[in-house]
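User: My collaborator sent over this chain with a note saying "see what the structure looks like." That's all I know about it. Can you take a look?
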Amino acid sequence: MRTKYPTKPFELWQKAKEIRLQNYKSIMNAKAEGKLLFTGQRGAPTEIVAGFGDLEFLGMNDYAASIAHDPPAALEAFELLEARGYSRDVCAYWRCLWARP
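Assistant: Without extra context I'll predict from the sequence alone. Here is the result:
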């Protein structure tokens, strides 16, 4: 079978992983560096909160997907949140996000 468009592996995958790791490190150090930590959907109006000064943005979907991709970590997150009194019918992505300290 002929393909119309040739395909190849994503060449920058390693670089993308390095950038994501640096982003998470910046988020983890935000408080120590005196930065505001803002979290929300990737479509959130970051331009509005940028007026508050130097900040780090934690995209809820990105972080929650990282947790959800690891079933033992996701289960731990769900159990932690349930122990805090949250219901099981809360969105699974939000449970992954809220359960982290």
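A starting point for your reply to your collaborator: The radius of gyration is 17 Å.
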